[in-house]
Amino acid sequence: MRNIVLFGDSITYGYGVFKKDSIQALIQQKFKNYSIINSGLNGDTSRYALTRLEKDVLKFSPYAVTVLFGSNDCAPSEYGYVTITEFKSNIEKIIKTISNKCQNIILITPPPVDESVFMPYTTNARLLPYCEAIRDISKKYNCFLADFNMYITQKSNGFLAEYLQEDGCHISEKGYLCFFECLEPTLKKLL
Questions:
Q1: What are phi and psi of 113, to 5 degrees?
Q2: Which fold has domain 2-190?
Q3: CB 120 within 8 A of CB 168
Q4: pLDDT tens-digit profile of 39-73?
Q5: Which of 73, 164, 77 is CA-nearest to residue 127?
C-alpha cells in the first residue's frame, strides 16, 4: 500500500476536532487504497519542520506529501516567529529534501484567520506574504498547489466564523470539509 504523508502544523494535525473530522480521516475515507500518515505537529513552524523530515516524512517512503506551514511562522512570538525570508528558504529546503525521494509534493496555503475574535496570534495581513511565498514556490519548483487560503476565503464569502474554531485560527469540522474539497482535485490527479 502506498503512503501519503501529511506534513504540517496543527491545521494538518487536526487540533480541536475529533479524529474522524480531521483531514487525515477525510482523505482516508475517500482514498482507501492508500495509507494516510498524519505528520502534523501542533505549534510547528517551517524552521522546526526541517528537523523532522527524516523521522516524520522520508522514513515512510511516501508516494505523495502535502506540506502546510505558515500560520505559526508569521505569528509574532518570541520563539516561533520565522521571517518571510527564512520561511521561503525553509520551504525550499523541505521541497528539495523530499523531492530526492518523492516527486509528488502538494504545497498548501494556510487558512485565513478571523480577526473579529480576540484569540488569533496573527492577522491576515501578516499571513498574506507567507501564502504568496507558497504560491510562488509551487511555480518555481513545479509542485502541485492547493490554495486553501483562497478557496476558504471564497467559499465563506467573508464569513469565516463557521469554518474556524472559537480561537479564530484553527479550522472547525466545516473547515476541514472545505479543506478536503480544496485538496481532493489535486489528490485525484495524483492518485
A1: -110, 160
A2: Rossmann fold (3.40.50)
A3: yes
A4: 999 999 999 999 999 999 999 999 999 999 999 99
A5: 73
Provide the whole-model pTM: 0.96
Q: Which residue has the cell 502541485?
A: 144
Taking Cα atoms as reference points, which of 76, 77, 24, 73 lies closest to residue 49?
73
Reported as type and span, the H/E element at residue 154 is helix 148-156
* Cell numbers that stand for 79 in this block: 520563539
Residue in the structure block whose three cell numbers are 509574532: 76
Q: Which residues pair with 8 in a beta bridge?
A: 40, 68
C-alpha closest to that of 114 among 152, 62, 59: 152
Domain spans in the chain, listed from the N-terminal domain onward: 2-190
In angstroms, the first-to-last Cα distance of the chain is: 12
